[in-house]
Design brief:
The complex is a heterodimer of chains A (798) and B (346). The two termini of chain A are 31 Å apart. By secondary structure, chain A is of the alpha+beta class. In chain A, strands 11, 12, 13, 14, 15, 16, 17, 18, 19 and 20 form a ten-stranded mixed β-sheet that branches. Chain A has an eight-stranded mixed β-sheet with strand order 6-5-7-4-3-9-1-10, with helices on both faces. A two-stranded antiparallel sheet of chain A has the order 2-8. By secondary structure, chain B is an all-beta fold. Helices cover 3% and strands 55% of the residues of chain B. Chain B is built from one helix and 23 strands. In chain B, a hairpin with a 2-residue loop joins strand 12 and strand 13. Classes of the chains: A alpha+beta (798), B mainly beta (346). At the A-B interface, helix 3, helix 4 and helix 6 of A face helix 1 and strand 4 of B.
């Protein structure tokens, strides 16, 4: 009996292959986009974990200098002779012909366990490792090093990308940093009764074990990706819901018959669930394969973006990790379950002797639309409430969800209202029929149109946000990267010589004095600047009071970054303690995009008073002929190429990175729109069969099939146009929420919103085009319907 | 984990040919080899000999607190060479590691340190004498008056050593043979230290006095390929005499023995293979191994027929290459105290 009912129910699919395809593809696409995004995120996360394990930042306390510069090896020996169990680390960049490689030097004998899982197999000669040096790197990095160094290279794919691990002596020789160390790792277990670190090594500060800073920065990027994944999945689920509901709706007669014949309800429900499970399994596997392909294509771009933007190293090749394919399968099952739950429930509670007539769209009555409208208004009022009183990131996403869902649910009501408006004003009979028919179509197409609404709104919203960011960022870069050259000195002696030389030969010299400290309880960088024309002319403030730069130069005020101000709950004119004994009012708040740390800027003289030991090692230089100055510096002072950085190069590099980020966003945008278009196509196709009885009378009255096809196309254009009209304000609202609410809660800085009407017009065109393309096939089908089919409507007894 | 791997690799010139306990039986390729008729030159020979592969400064002490509690203290600094030379800086092929322990009847606390040579973190020098690693030191204006310090997670000690007798040379004037095949080391001791100082233990500081025995030994292949470990005894009898004896066990169950009888004035008598005998009496399960913690020791030529028993049978050194080391009491034809070291029990 079970098998018989299964085959009976499943036979529906062989008669409705299109529905079958729609269901499978819809679920597969949704799962694919979700798993693809998760795969990228998982790969990135694995790389960060490897980096953290290699660099040990998350596991052990570290000893570093205040300024982050290197220090003498003798400090390490002194701490060791005092009994402290610390281990030396040297880090630096090695320039090769094929790019930069991070060199990490460790002392394998003293490194705490769990660090740098370097596979010392029997073939590695210990003597060679300790005395000459052997480099361990993953295959990608090993290729970059090939032929560039005299040391042997051993490939170990457990090592984080972009890093080569070696003995500290070898690292010192490679990086030309004799007797210098970058930091010391403090072992967890220390003997008792030791003298304090400060008494043995007063220049070092202890940094508690924490997650690598890159984590916080890259969070925003991964959050974006995940949000997209969710969105695509939601759109996909709309397709699935529509198709599953339709399939269940069409099989109601069959179900009634089966039950009348004697199949127990439980068996039927079981069989239906089994069918759904089979779908979810197949579609899930298909989706995962799709996701893998998508992720492999996008991953190199993502890796390049993350490296350029945050300095985070992510492997460029994809690995099959259970995290993402398991979650993909789970989501496929979850999605199917969600989509089918309502329909299953209805089947379970259907009275046995209910009429088997295909219900003439009970949904067609305005009632359902109004009910949805009611639900929408509830959700939107919740959204408003959160916007006014809500705090925190979770609330922010709740706001987004309520907003989007509410708008989606409101769409049928709005469309119905708009169509009704036009209907009242239409004169000719055909047009009256057309608008009435459209009104009746709306519920059937509503899910697909909701998908289109969400996709378009997401497009508008995200592209507004991204473009606003781009415009703001370019301005920001221009402001901050005003100096034409950045020069780094190797040591204090060179720094002095450099400063003297530059003052004589450049228009303006800006020494970089900074120290890492805590301001108002927030980890921040405190800068001492030489106030001059550069700062006065270039810096733009979010808010200011008085003549800011004169006040700062006189030591009467400080400038703080937006993040610091918002997180500490301070604003212009509030006093802030920037250094021991120095309390100054905030003269201005400046934007500092993307920086998780706070920033405070005071005058150079005041800085030197508080931190007399800190010497500037980096200088920004204003010059009218940077190329000539750069050449002169290399010849006269013997500076290496690496010590001089050209501002134009940094700017173009940063912008390059942004373009790449936007490429990924753009790609995902297009994909989501494609999914929505697919939803429309499927809805139209599946409804096409239903439409015959409704179109037959009109055809009989004289409207040609061709005309009917044209009207179908026109209907698609009208509905899509109306949807995009609603989508654009929704998208702008979305952008506003993202920029002013979510961003502030997540990162502490607000982005100004810029509007790009031209862009939205283009986007609407694309959305309408997508709808038209989707409607093309059904319309053509309709135009080619054999007259006999239409006649049959009158012949059959209904 | 890395330390373990490194320690295992430390003794190996090439990993595939590790032989004997801790690879000490591997061939001495490239390194200097001890020869008969060596003239010791002090204080230079108190310092390191980088052209030999393995060397140690090995101090064991039998101490008592004011309330009569017996303690044993160990301080050992090892030098292991990957190449027969020494270079300034990280490229130095010398590796230094050390063990320290404090043992009483019911406690046994250990600590381990490891360091690279060439950078100042560890080392030894002859004049003025100093041997150190991290904050563990054995140093003084001369070899006869030194200060000994060490620190672990749960203990520390600070002891003063005063030599009350001359240096003592084992084997043939310091050339100590280890097997029939002729592997040997240079081996001398200072067994006449008088000790006074403080032990810092979990329960508080304890003032102690007693005696200490320092072994100095260096070689490049101290064991034969088939020797799996040794049992080493240093016994100080109440009569003022002292006895150093060791058994080098091979895989067949035979042993090569050697002993030195030391008179109170420092006169030595060397005994070749076969004269010194020792048999395990009681076995204790320690760290998953069956280790003899009571021995019957005989040296008929000197009328020695004693039972040597561990003060704390659980004196297992749980370091990278583990072994047993702890203070012992002697009873029988002679009575006294001493130290026992047993390696190679699997």
């Amino acid at each position: 009996m079970i098998f018989a009912s299964f085959t009976a129910l499943a036979s529906h699919w062989s008669r409705n292959r299109l529905q079958f395809l729609a269901l499978l593809l819809g679920l597969a696409l949704a799962t694919g986009l979700w798993s693809g995004v998760q795969a990228i995120n998982a790969e990135a996360r694995a790389s960060y974990d490897a980096a953290a394990a290699t660099l040990g930042e998350g596991q052990y306390d570290q000893l570093v200098t205040e300024t982050g510069d290197r220090f003498a090896q003798s400090t390490y020996i002194a701490l060791r002779r005092a009994g402290w169990q610390v281990s030396p680390v040297l880090e630096g960049e090695l320039r090769t012909d094929q790019g930069l490689v991070q060199i990490l030097g460790l002392d394998a004998l003293t490194t705490p366990g769990g660090l740098a899982p370097v596979g010392m197999d029997g073939e590695t000669d210990l003597l060679e490792f300790l005395t000459q040096g052997v480099l361990f790197a993953n295959s990608e990095t090993a290729l970059r090093l090939d032929g560039q160094v005299t040391l042997a290279i051993v490939v170990d794919d457990n090592i984080a990308p972009g890093i080569a691990v070696t003995d500290i002596g070898a690292a010192q020789r490679l990086l030309d940093a004799d007797n210098q160390l970058s930091r010391l790792i403090v072992a967890r277990a220390q003997p008792f009764g030791l003298p304090s670190i400060a008494s043995v090594a007063p220049d070092l500060v202890r940094q508690p074990a924490q997650d690598a800073g890159a984590d916080r920065l890259t969070d925003s990027f991964h959050l974006n990706l995940t949000a997209f994944g969710f969105l695509s999945f939601a759109v996909g689920i709309f397709i699935v819901h529509g198709t599953v509901s339709l399939a269940f709706e069409q099989r109601r007669g069959m179900v009634r018959t089966l039950r009348a014949v004697g199949v127990p309800l439980r068996t039927l429900i079981g069989v239906l669930i089994a069918e759904l499970v089979a779908f979810a399994l197949i579609a899930g596997l298909l989706g995962i394969a799709l996701g893998y392909v998508m992720a492999s294509v996008l991953l190199p771009n993502v890796a390049a973006t993350l490296q350029g933007l945050y300095g985070a190293q992510v492997a460029g090749s994809l690995q099959l990790r259970p995290e993402w394919w398991l979650s993909g399968m789970a989501i496929a099952f979850l999605g199917t379950g969600l989509a089918a739950a309502a329909a299953l429930w209805k089947i379970a509670h259907m009275p046995l002797l209910e009429s088997a007539r295909p219900r003439a769209w009970a949904v067609a009555s305005g009632q359902t639309a109004y009910r949805l409208g009611l639900a929408a208004s509830v959700l939107l009022s919740i959204a408003v409430a959160i916007a006014i009183w809500g705090q925190g990131l979770v609330m922010g996403f709740g706001l987004l969800a309520c907003l989007l869902l509410g708008a989606a649910l409101a769409l049928p009501v709005l469309l119905r209202g708009a169509v009704q408006l036009v209907e009242r004003h239409s004169k000719s009979v055909m047009w009256q029929w057309f608008w009435a028919d459209t009104k009746q179509q709306v519920p059937g197409l509503s899910l697909a149109l909701m998908a289109l609404l969400l996709a378009t709104a997401a497009n508008v919203g995200v592209s507004t946000m991204v473009s606003s960011f781009r415009v703001t960022f370019v301005d920001f870069l221009d402001q901050r990267l005003a100096p034409e050259l950045y020069i780094r000195a190797q040591d204090e002696v060179q720094a002095q010589a450099l400063e003297t030389y530059l003052i004589a030969n450049a228009r303006e010299v800006l020494p970089s004095l900074s120290v890492e400290t805590d301001i108002a309880g927030i980890p921040s960088d405190l800068f001492g600047v030489r106030v001059g024309p550069t700062y006065r002319e270039n810096w733009l403030f979010l808010d200011q009071s008085g003549d800011v730069w004169s006040d700062v130069a006189a030591g009467r005020a400080v400038v703080v970054s937006e993040q610091l101000a918002r997180r500490a709950g301070l604003w212009v004119d509030d006093p802030v303690t920037v250094a021991p004994g120095i309390v100054l009012p905030i003269g201005a708040v400046v934007a500092d995009y993307g920086n998780p740390r706070g920033q405070a800027v005071m005058s150079e003289t005041l800085f030197k008073q508080s931190f007399p030991d800190i010497q500037p090692m980096q200088f920004g230089v204003r010059s009218d002929d940077p190329a000539a100055l750069s050449l002169a510096l290399r010849e006269d002072l013997g500076l290496s190429d690496a010590a001089i950085i050209d501002q134009a190069a940094i700017k173009s590099f940063s912008l390059d990175v942004f373009e790449r980020t936007f490429t990924i966003t753009g790609a995902l945008n297009v994909l989501t729109l494609a999914v929505a278009a697919f939803a429309i196509l499927m809805s139209l196709l599946t409804l096409a069969a239903m439409r015959i009885p409704q179109l037959a009378p009109v055809w009989a009255l004289g409207l040609t099939r061709r005309r009917l096809g044209q009207l179908e196309m026109f209907r698609a254009v009208v509905l899509a146009f109306l949807t995009t009209v609603f989508a654009i304000p929704l998208g702008l609202l979305l952008a506003w929420v993202l920029l002013s609410y979510v961003n502030v809660e997540a990162f502490g800085w607000k982005l100004p919103m810029y509007i790009f009407p031209g862009h939205y017009a283009v986007l609407s065109m694309f959305a309408i085009l997508a709808a038209v393309l989707a409607a093309l096939w059904p319309a053509w089908n309709l135009a080619k319907t054999p007259p006999s089919l239409l006649l049959k409507v009158f012949a059959n007894d209904r | 984990m890395i330390v373990r791997l490194f320690c295992a690799l430390l003794f190996l010139a090439s990993p595939l040919s590790a032989q004997g306990f801790a690879g000490l039986g591997t061939d001495a390729e490239g390194f200097s080899v001890p020869a008969e008729g060596f003239d010791f030159d002090f204080p230079t020979d108190h310092g390191p000999h980088p052209d030999y592969r393995i060397e140690w400064w090995y101090l064991t002490a039998n101490l008592q607190a004011d309330d009569g509690t017996a303690y044993g203290v160990q301080w050992t600094l090892f030098r292991s060479a990957l190449a027969p030379e020494t270079i300034e800086g990280w490229q130095d092929p010398q590796i230094w590691f050390a063990h320290a322990a404090v043992t009483s009847e019911d406690t046994h606390l250990t600590a381990e340190r490891i360091a690279r040579g060439g950078i100042g973190q560890a080392g030894a020098q002859a004049r003025p004498f100093s041997a150190w690693i991290d904050d563990w030191t054995m140093a003084g204006p001369s070899f006869d008056a030194m200060r000994l310090t060490a620190r672990g997670a749960q203990f520390a000690y600070d002891l003063n050593l005063m030599a009350k007798g001359p240096l003592v040379f084992h084997g043939q004037n310091g050339y100590s043979v280890k097997s029939d095949q002729g592997q040997a080391s240079y081996y001398y001791s200072q067994p006449f230290f008088e000790v006074a100082g403080t032990l810092s233990l979990p329960n508080g500081d304890v003032d102690v006095t007693g005696s200490a025995w320092l072994d100095r030994e260096w070689s490049s292949q101290p064991l034969a390929e088939d020797q799996s470990g040794w049992d080493w005894f240093s016994l100080s009898f109440d009569s003022g005499d002292k006895l150093m004896g060791f058994l080098l066990r091979d895989r067949d169950g035979d042993a090569f023995s050697s002993a030195t009888w030391i008179e109170p004035d420092g006169t030595t008598t060397a005994f070749e293979n076969g004269a010194f005998a020792a048999q395990p009496v009681t076995l204790t399960e320690v760290a998953g191994r069956e280790v003899p913690t009571t021995w019957a020791v005989q040296l008929p030529a000197k009328g020695i027929d004693v039972e040597v028993s561990a003060l704390n049978p659980m004196a297992w050194m749980g370091v990278s290459i583990p072994y047993w080391e702890g203070p012992v009491t002697v009873s029988g034809s002679y009575s006294g105290v001493g130290y026992l070291e047993m390696t190679g029990y699997e």
